Structures are given as C-alpha cells and as structure tokens.
Amino acid sequence: MSNAQGNKRPGSRQGFPGSTHQPGFGLWEAVENLRSEFERRVGPRMGLRMGRGDVRAAILSLLSEGPMHGYQIIQEIEKRSNGAWKPSAGSVYPTLQMLADEGLVLAKEADGRKTYSLTESGTAEAETGGSAPWESSSHWGGARSTVLPKAGVKLAEVVGQIARGGTPEQVDEAVAVIDEARRKLYLILAED
Hints:
The protein has 8 helices and 3 strands, in the order ααβααββαααα. By secondary structure, it is mainly alpha-helical. The longest helix is centred in the last third of the chain and has 23 residues, at 168-190.
C-alpha cells in the first residue's frame, strides 16, 4: 500500500534519516521521543512554570529594591533566574493589579508607562515574605532545574547525529553507552 509520498506504509519515512530501511531506526526514534518529552515538560526555552504565589513573591522582592514598570519586572525575573523563568505579561500585570488592590503597590503613570512601587504595607510584606523564588533551592536546584533537561537535549542531539550519519558499528556502540547511562541513572534514583 502506498501513500501520497510513495512510501510503502503509512507513517514510514523511507529515505528520511531514521526510516525503517536504515540502520539506527530505533535509536533515531528514541532520540525523537526524548527531544519531544523535554520540549513537552519544559518548553522550547527550557523555562519553568511558576505559580501565582511565586510571581507575587518575585514582584514584591524586586519592588523592594526600587520602582519598576511591568516589562522591567519581567526582564529582571528572567535575568535573575538565569533565563530559566520568564513570566508572561498575563501573569505579571494581573498580579500587580491584585497587589495594588491589596494596598501593597502604588502605580504612577509617567511618560505613558505605569511604574510600580511598594507602599509601606508592601515593604513590610516584602520583608516578611522570605527569599525571592530565584534564590530558593527548591525552585532552581532541585528536580525542576533546567540543567538536567539541557543535558538531555545535548545528549539527544549527538545521538541524532550518530543515528543519521553513523556506521552500524557506531550505532551499536552508542546504544551500549546509552543503555549503560540509563542503568546508572536508575541507580541514582535508587539511592536513599
């Protein structure tokens, strides 16, 4: 049975790297699955999704250093989290409005931009709020860290190169290395 591209069966990618007619198909498929999983879990930018409470804490922390407008807050959060977290305008501006409604933030308009600063109550809240989210090891040093997914993507890239252009012997050797790495990773999980 042929489809529009002339392939033998639906879904086959004859002539494409990783097709069932080339060595390393299983390896290529595994690489694609790994890449897709990392993108699904952490997104193409390897960013983290944080909760509204984290956005609130970040805003209070930043404004305790001085007045800022919303875009500056977004940029500063991204900078301080080393690019791991860039909140959307759709989470920052509603949080700023909520803080203003609570009397913690004051908005002043100048040059067509709203600049936000803390009120006395906001300063007190920021002082008692604890550390900023980017300073917390639970956000940046734990399993949600971007370091592990980035390493996985780098691994997937080199595996993809081997799958596309490697000899059958290189593919076999790569599979052995990946199998050994997988066993070692399971041992890490088994540690107390």
